[in-house]
Amino acid sequence: MLVQKPARLPALGALLLTLLLSWGGAAVFAAGAKTWNYMPSSETGTQAFRAAHPGWDGRGVAVAILDTGVDAFAPGLLETSTGQVKLIDVRDFSTEGDWDTAEAELDESGTEAAPVFKTEEGLLLRGAAGLAVPPVADGDAKYPVYIGVIAEKQFVNNSDVNDLNDDGDTSDKFGFLVYAADRAAVEDALGVGRGYEMLRGLNDTARKTVEKERLSKKVWVVVVDTDGNGDLADEKLLRDYRVDYDAFSLASDNNPDSRSLMAWEVNVRANEDHLGLQLAPTVEFHFDDGSHGSHCAGIAAGHGVSGQEGMEGGAPGAWLLSLKLGDNRLAGGATRTGSMKKAYEYAASFEEKYGIPVVVNMSFGIASVEEGDDAMGGWLNELLAEHPTLYVCTSAGNEGPGLSTIGLPATAYSLISSGAYLSPATGKDLYNAGLARATLFNFSSRGGETCKPDIVSPGSALSTVPGYVDGMARFHGTSMASPQTAGAVACLVGAAAQEGL
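-> structure tokens emitted (501 positions)
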């Protein structure tokens, strides 16, 4: 990890430099390396840091990826170095994953014992009576049943993935039901949930939060017709992701060669009118249909990336949170400041509710009109002052040198913004380039009205991606540099917590 303008670094950035560079920075460019430098976390010092103290690998820390989503099925994002589930919570603040629902109608082909539900357009869903906790199908106002449809045509503008079940066409529809059920019945059938069990065992703060959430007598459940055959009998009941880490993929019922393209998860948001009466809920589906977020997640905290033993991100012991803010219906997976704020607020609330230090990586930004004079940066400075165990790392931007090239919120003084460089070792292995010395990528934003970036980190890597991008992918940019910094910060924060600092 190279440094620019150390006098302007935040306190955490100075600590990161002092500790991590002493654990390996001096050996970054040593000649004769015997390993392929596809994931150059050795250059930040984290590999040597973890080798000297194996428990200081980010365990006990959550790295929140504010991006296009994180794929729960990607090899390298399945579990931590201690064998726990890696991705422990997901949310979508981009609105891309918001699905409206309507109260389901009963089709006359069904019976009281075996109801068949239908949409207004006539899509039928049968087999719900065979679910572990079936819906009440008698029009009970206390427990209404709602229905919705995932249609491939909704992804028509997404160039990365629009054939959701990989069957060769883009006209498929996948119905789903969502309904409230008695919590006791659901937990009797499905258990309290792996996520809840893990969280309440962490500390007293997390235990109290979980028990408070479980005080409600009803719980939303979702069932998706994942193979599109109209039969729910062979499907799994899904709860909010953090409860039991439920994830699924969409498949073809008549094409055995179809692949699992990406992981889907759900959260349900209840809706009320101004009188407090229940309206149809919104089902918030989470998925990474842009691949950028999963790639960053692997760099920050991957463990066994692409199934390769020993290929680790910066903090392989850390958990991941995916707080999606990139809307892939828009060009470049664009975001909005409103989505940013909601994601940051959620990261801060997670840290408070569960007593877990959170390191945010946001390899996203919006162009600055005038660096350091944006409302978002000021808002973020205030938020971080209120949450001392919330740490934020961002990409500086890919606009090269010049005025106003550092994007917001990277200009905020309370966070660490990363530029991108390329070392001779990584240049040789990833690009077959012969570099005499480390060099700053020409696209790396720098200079202008503020003294940013704070740090430059390795700006290229092979890392984790969803199934629709075969294997691994080589990306480069300050987007790849920031998660290197975030992984290093997570290692330090975890080590400090273990040492009682």
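Confidence is low (pLDDT under 50) at residues 1-11, 21-34.
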